[in-house]
Design a protein that fits this description.
Shape: globular
Number of strands: 54
Distance between the termini: 30 Å
Structural class: mainly beta
CATH class of the largest domain: Mainly Beta
Number of domains: 4
Number of helices: 12
CATH topology of the largest domain: Neuraminidase
CATH superfamily of the largest domain: TolB, C-terminal domain
CATH architecture of the largest domain: 6 Propeller
Radius of gyration: 32 Å
Largest sheet: 20 strands, antiparallel
Length: about 1100
Amino acid sequence: MALHLFRRLNKMILSFLSIANAALYDPDLSWRTLETNNFRIHFHGGEEQLAEEMAVVAEAAFIELTEELKWTPKDPTEVVLVDNTDSANGYATFLPINTIVIFVTAPEGNSTLALYEDWNDAIMTHELTHILHMDTVEGAAVVFRKALGRIIAVNGLAPAWIIEGQATMQETWKTNAGRGRGTVPDMIKRTATINDAFPPLGNMDGFQTQWPSGNIRYLFGQDFMNYIATTQGEYVWTDWNHKYGEGLIYLLPSKKVLGDNLPNLYKEWKASMESRYQEQIHWIEKEGLTEHTLISEPGLSCSGIALSPDGEKLLYSCYSITSGSNVYIANADGSDPEIELKGIYATDITWRSDSNAFAYSAKRTVNRFNLYSDVYLRKIGGGGNMLTMAKRARNPEFSREGDRLLVVTNEFQNNQLAELRIDQRYDVLTNNSDHTQYSTPRYSPDGEWIALSVWQEGQRDLWIYDKEGQPQRRITYDTAIEIDPEWSADGQRLYFSSDRTGIFNLYAIDLAQEHLWQVTNVSTGAFKPTVTPDQDRIIFSLYQEYGFAIADMNNAPENWKDRGILPKPYGYNTALSTFLPSKPLPDLPKSKARKPNDPEYNWWECLKKKRDSTDSGKKQSSDQLVTETLSYPGLTGLGGPFQFLHQHGQGAWGIPHENLWTGEFSEEPSGPILQEAAELHTEKKEEQEYEFSFPVSEYRPGKTILPTFIVPGIFRTPFGMLFSLGTSGTDTLRQHIYTASTNYRTDSGFLGWSLSYAYNKKIPIFSVGAYAGTVPYGNLYLTTESKSGPWIPSVTSTDVRYWDKRIRTYAQVSYGLDSLRSVFGRWNGTLRTPWIPQEQVFSLMGMQLWKGSIPLPDNAYRPFLPTRGFLSSISGGWRYTKGLSYGRSISAEDSRLISIVGELHSPYIGSFVLNDQDQWIPFTQLQVTGEWREYKSLPWKSNHVLAAKGAVGVSAGDGERYGSFRLGGDFGESGLNTIPEEWRALRGYFPASVSGNSFYLGSVEYRMPIIWFDRGVNTYPLFLRYISASFFVDVGNAFDEFYNIGRRPLVGMGAEVKTSIVVSWGQGLTLRTGYGFSPVGDGIPIGALEGFYFWLGSSF
């Protein structure tokens, strides 16, 4: 069981340790710890009030949930509160100890999380359920936990919909709100059900690329589990946790606990959902559905709708699983759409009054540690600039004069209104400390008033503020969610979206009479009303089974439904007519006529536009992933201090202990990448005076740093397998990380080990380590005396492979210059001695297992031996990486990676080797390597990619035996493979076919998807993603002297098929099967069986 869990936890270490992240949290933050009976809450400056509030709700939730789930953790749960993102999020992990991380921002009004009474209570209930659920072990599992530690967590290896559905269910049961009661989640489930898009049981884990993708495990998982609990009793899932927690992984106790298997129960639940929503649709249709026309491409999921003030142009932002995010501009009726901003997902867009420029908000990485929303200005057709820098500003709204912008800012779970003037003055208009949340503020046409949606004390209602940001009148006061206010052009009406009937529809308030009208009647959900200046049409966001579409309808008040006089909130007597324009409004200027680009201006872009249009009908997902990051020397990989860091909380799919650095809901930067503005001045989050009710002290990392588990592992080597046992430890804030491991190689019989430590608190990262292992070479050669004539030694080969035993120590410093570039410096010392397997123990499945080593024979032929001695070097490197992949990508796309590394060996720092007479001699060598990778999206078909790699290495000075570089082999890049560092793959040739002190290597691949399955089967721990194919050509050579650079290169070519799957309900794997051959030279001839190969991971 532990092995499978180790593989599952091995997924996303590299993406977590991207160049953008040095320390896990901003080094400028000062941390303190608040302790309660059952929690240690770690918080930074400015979060004092939040820490106190969280302590109260955490203890209350602990009492309820431990009683409900019948489990009490042995030790206090660690809680980290951090305010480094403008997205509501959090995650829980049981490794190395029970830890909850909460990103304290509260959700916005159109989120699936929007219905909450107290956000701290809601998210703590959800995450604490994870802790209690995954920590539960019974029976034999208790014995295994005592032996292997916290890696034994049977409930941590369960279908994701059971893990997340249970937490979402408790979040609903134990609070007065939650997603189980939310109208946005209900909209998603209803729309999927009535449009034949109900997720199969095998897709309930949310790994599918189609919307609603990751939301499935939360929303549908909660509903399914709640259905079973309703029919079989409230504690049925508590019984499940304890029964599964004492059993074996993968053997779900369905019949023992539920009385039936899950597929049968799923069918019953699905039938109940169909019945429920069919009845809803019957009553909705009885009222008469609103007629509308979709004007966005079917399949695109869009937001940020904005009609220009002159009514001529329409802006909106859309996401595609095949081509990512873009901001589009079109005619007012949606015709002739074109990309205005590529690669940007703008959540809010506002036009300047001259209709020639607009502002938008998008999230981006700030100073490497933060995901902040900022506001940008864009002129139509090109040009623009940042309007805010790390101000955490969103929801921009231009004034009628165009000289100022109203924005909403976020910090410490409090929203403020702020005004940004054209002279860059930035004034905060409010001073909230009660967790008030604002969204979509809108100036009245005369600029005197602001209509906005406000969350306070558990309710989200409409308000009117004055232009100075002071509240003047509450418009609605009820349990419904009211969002997206929009004034009519004449200021006589206020349009908005509300779920007051249980379904989001558009409404209008006649301000003079304070009369409420229902404008739409839809079966899904209607949002974001935008009324044309002549008030004849309404453009709005309409939910579909694939996401949010843009719809157009006639604005016909005669068809509206009369909802009566709007109730006046108690204590607010000001008439709404007070906020009508007091004088006639001047006409707005007309913009320049829009001229769509000539489609023939660029054949490449023309093909891509045609490609995206053709593929846009596919169902979409909101998940966008950054390209996979490569490992750092000395930090990642076997023996590095970050080898096990993935076990402490980051992963691919957003389930507990499998989270991206922003939490359960992955949200990557959506704004422009501004390399020159990577370092921005941000106000330091200073500690505040606060009267706590609990003991508070400075953060002490030593309290949680001891190791808590042992991890077994299996890795593939070129000639066998490597079995390992490892452990690691880290404190709660990941400031100190260490690992220790031991391993056994079947092919050499060597018992290896490793120790490492990283200081991860500051920029840069400091790390040290030591490890021992073996590297294979050719057979051992011996000299023998000739039996005829004078004494002439002859050299004969033995059947015993020579292994290079390496004991390596290192010290390294790594520094991220910005989100794209990094540098490192390193000292490395390696003792290289012979390792000759002593005896073969036995053969297992074709693998020879060896034991021990014999000394190097006196008659070993020294000139054929690899380098022996102690190699000491200093090195440094620079790396640049940038790129994206999308929901349907089978490779990095439009990406680039460049790296340069230099290394110097010198006797002045202790570098000496043995010569053929076994005498120590100085060793001096300068080695420089470089690599450049490009991944180019091809225009004629979505997600077809041309991938190219070029690499060179040059050594000057003393040469190593068998060279510094060895070319040949079909291995690739995977954390589950261990390959000697001097080896370079060149398919079509055997491993290390050619060696030298310099090399060049080029690879080109055409990659294309073959079929997308996007399908799991029932509750089996297997999800099929896709099959892709590639055709490759590899060219390279290695040599000792530069005059040999012109000799005939090694050329390999062939094809590969990759199968992408998800196993163990969360571990992504790529199975790479290929055939390589050499059309010329001494490589593998075409037709030879040796050309077939199978590996995990990608080629590059």
